[in-house]
Design a protein that fits this description.
single chain; 295 residues; alpha+beta; Aminopeptidase; six-stranded mixed sheet; 6 strands; binds coenzyme A
C-alpha cells in the first residue's frame, strides 16, 4: 500500500463499448466476460467506492511505472472477492488498462500484433483456471499477469518466454500436450525473436524453474512422456528450498486445479495424478527445481 501511494501517471480503461471485443481477443470466456462487463467501473457505478477507484488507479500506475521491466512485482492487496464484481475483478480492469500500454511497448519494439494478442490472451486462460479452481487460483495469477502487462514475457508457440538478464525463462501454459516438437519449435522462435526485437539484450541460456523439472517424477512417469523428455533438455542447479513457495501446493495446483481437496478425494485418472497422490501419501515431498541449457 505504501508503494501504491504516489503521483505516478495511471492509464485509462478502454471505452466500455470496445470492451466486449477486447475481452474476446483476450480469450476471456463468455461467463467471465459477462461478470467483467457487469462490474465495469462506470463513473456512476455504485459498486465502485472511492477507495476501490483509488486502488484501481494506483495499481495501474504502479505496474505502468515498471513498463519494460521483467522482475516479479509484489502482488497487490488481496481483495475479498466475494464482495462483488468490482472487488472480484479489480485486477482484471487494471490489466485491461495496461493492455493498451503493453501493446504500445510491443509496437515500439517492432513486435507483431499477433504476438501481442496471443501473449496478452493469457488473461482469459488464467480466468478460466481460476473459475475451475473456484477462485482459489487468483492470488498468484494476479502477480504473474503483470509480466505480460509490462512487456516482460512473450508467448511464442507452445511456451512463454520471460526476459531476464542473461537467461530467457521458460513458462509452460496449460495448453495441451508438451510435445518435444512443439517445444523445439517454440525455442527456435525465441532464438529469432529476442535478437530481432531486443537487440540490446544478450541471452546465453534458456532457464526454467518448475515442478516439471523434479527428477523424482522419473520414478513414476514413462521415459517417453513429454514431461520427462522436457526435463532431459536441462542441466539442473543444485537443489535449494524455494522461498515463498510450497512445491507440494504447486503440484496440486497444476495436477488437479484444487488446493483444498483432501488427498483421498482427488481423482486418480492420469499417471501424474496417481504419482502426486502416492508420493505425498508416502510422506515424501515434491521439489521445485531450476535448470538451464545454452541457447
Ligand atoms: C506441462 C503439461 C502440458 C504436460 O502434459 P503432457 O504433455 O500430457 O505430459 P506427459 O506426456 O509427460 O504426461 C504423462 C502423464 O501425466 C499426465 N499429466 C500430465 N500433466 C498433467 C496435469 N497437469 N494434470 C493431470 N495429469 C497430467 C498425462 O495425462 C499422462 O498420464 P496418462 O498417460 O495416464 O494419460 C501439463 O502438465 C500441463 O498442462 N500443466 C499445467 C501447466 C504447468 O504445469 N506449467 C508449469 C508451471 S511451473
Amino acid at each position: 500500500m505504501h508503494r501504491l501511494a504516489g503521483d505516478l501517471p495511471s492509464a485509462p480503461l478502454p471505452a466500455k463499448a470496445d470492451a466486449p471485443a477486447i475481452l474476446d481477443r483476450l480469450a476471456v470466456h463468455p461467463d467471465d466476460a459477462a461478470e467483467i462487463m457487469a462490474g465495469w467501473p462506470d463513473p456512476d457505478s455504485p459498486l465502485w467506492t472511492p477507495e476501490l477507484r483509488w486502488l484501481l488507479d494506483r495499481v495501474i500506475a504502479l505496474v505502468r511505472a515498471d513498463l519494460g521491466g521483467h522482475g516479479w512485482l509484489p502482488p497487490g492487496p488481496e481483495l475479498p472477492r466475494e464482495r462483488g464484481h468490482a472487488w472480484r475483478h479489480l485486477y482484471v480492469y487494471a490489466y485491461l488498462a495496461l493492455a493498451d500500454v503493453a501493446m504500445g511497448y510491443h509496437r515500439d519494439h517492432g513486435i507483431s500484433a499477433d504476438v501481442s494478442w496471443t501473449t496478452l490472451a493469457d488473461l482469459g486462460r488464467n480466468l478460466a483456471v481460476d473459475r475451475r479452481m473456484n477462485g482459489e487460483g487468483w492470488p498468484v495469477m494476479q502477480s504473474w499477469l503483470t509480466l505480460h502487462a509490462r512487456g516482460g514475457l512473450y508467448e511464442l508457440g507452445r511456451l512463454q518466454h520471460h526476459r531476464g538478464d542473461t537467461d530467457i525463462s521458460l513458462h509452460i501454459p496449460d495448453a495441451g500436450p508438451l510435445t518435444p516438437e512443439a517445444v523445439s519449435a517454440s525455442l527456435d522462435q525465441a532464438r529469432a525473436f529476442f535478437p530481432r526485437h531486443f537487440p540490446d539484450e544478450h541471452y546465453t541460456h534458456f532457464a526454467c524453474g518448475s515442478w516439471l523439472l523434479d527428477p523424482q517424477l522419473l520414478e513414476y512417469l514413462p521415459e517417453d512422456s513429454n514431461i520427462i523428455r522436457f526435463q532431459r533438455r536441462f542441466e539442473l542447479e543444485p537443489y535449494e528450498e524455494p522461498e515463498g513457495l510450497d512445491p507440494d501446493v504447486e503440484v496440486l495446483r497444476f495436477g488437479f486445479r484444487t488446493l483444498t481437496t483432501p488427498l483421498d478425494q482427488l481423482p486418480r485418472r492420469t499417471a501424474l495424478q496417481r504419482a502426486i497422490i502416492d508420493h505425498l501419501r508416502s510422506g515424501r515431498h515434491w521439489h521445485w527445481r531450476r535448470g538451464r541449457f545454452p541457447i
